[in-house]
Design a protein that fits this description.
Layout (H helix, E strand, L loop, with lengths): L2 H15 L6 H13 L3 E7 L5 E7 L8 H13 L4 H7 L8 E7 L6 H7 L5 E9 L4 E9 L7 H26 L10 H9 L7 H11 L4 H8 L3 H15 L4 H13 L1
Antiparallel strand pairs: 1-2, 1-5, 3-4, 4-5
Helix pairs in contact: 1-2, 2-6, 7-8, 8-9, 8-10, 9-10
Length: 263
């Protein structure tokens, strides 16, 4: 085993220690820096209703504070649907390999607004995306800036070799992070819905009921079966509730509810 391989194994072992912990995103970036000289990283989850949920983003930009997080949130809110590569992966059906690594250069992005806000503004040169095509469908992306240069071929090959293990840890981390939110320590659904109704956001009963189901960790299909409504209706009520609550995804809903619960 070469010194490089030994170093990679050591980095992966350190990352494994952080699975499920709050320090995992930073350790993930540190690991990707060691493997591929990564400047930024991000992770997203494709939901069953067709939306994309922001999981985390890390990286420091010398002139744009918080760039990685802001660009990733913007991507999840409005730009991912303009990303031809992401849409191709999501619409590609069952993949030959459960974990794929896909390369994207900044000048291959056709949408000018997306290219400007997520790449050109911070001189991001290239992205490598690791896609876990089984459920949960998760994307983890690595970025390099103009200063660092493009990813060398040897680096891409090294990443491809460890990508299945990296994504296994990301998937495990996401599941562990979600576990406390689905634990039976939560109050019953009716109580959660009642708190949301009383919080002053003008939610309807159905909007509060659907939001409560999401807070309990239920899928849209599970909520649909429980309340006796079509899946499309659940998605509509969720969208209306999110708009009134001023949140864009389930994590935002959870943060808002925690604030309501403390009052």
């Amino acid at each position: 085993m070469s010194a490089l391989e030994i170093d990679t194994v050591s980095q992966m072992a350190s990352l494994m220690d952080e699975v499920g912990e709050t320090g995992f995103p930073e350790k993930f970036l540190e690991t990707l820096r060691g493997i591929a000289g990564t400047d930024f990283c991000s992770a997203f989850q494709a939901e069953e209703d067709g939306s994309l949920t922001y999981l985390f983003a890390c990286g420091y930009h010398s002139t744009i504070p918080g760039f990685a997080e802001r660009a990733s949130l913007d991507y999840a809110r409005r730009y991912w649907q303009r990303d031809r590569v992401t849409r191709q992966m999501l619409n590609g059906g069952p993949a030959h390999r459960k974990v794929q690594v896909v390369r994207q250069a900044w000048n291959g992005i056709r949408d000018p607004e997306y290219r400007r806000d997520c790449y050109e503004r911070a001189h991001v040169l290239e992205r490598l995306t690791i896609y876990h095509s089984d459920e949960p469908r998760i994307f983890a992306s690595l970025y390099r800036t103009r200063e660092s240069g493009p990813f060398p071929l040897a680096t891409v090959e090294r990443l491809e070799a460890v990508a299945p293990l990296l994504m296994a840890m990301v998937v495990k981390h996401v599941r562990l992070q979600a576990r406390p939110q689905t634990a039976p320590l939560r109050p019953p659904q009716q109580e959660i819905a009642g708190r949301l109704l009383q919080a002053g956001y003008a939610l309807s009963g159905r909007e509060a009921e659907v939001s409560a189901g999401l807070l309990l960790g239920r899928t849209h299909r599970e909520i649909s079966e429980k309340v006796g409504l079509a899946l499309s209706s659940i998605v509509t009520y969720r969208q209306r509730a999110y708009r009134k609550l001023g949140v864009s995804d389930r994590r935002g809903l959870e943060a808002l509810y925690e604030g309501i619960s403390r009052n």
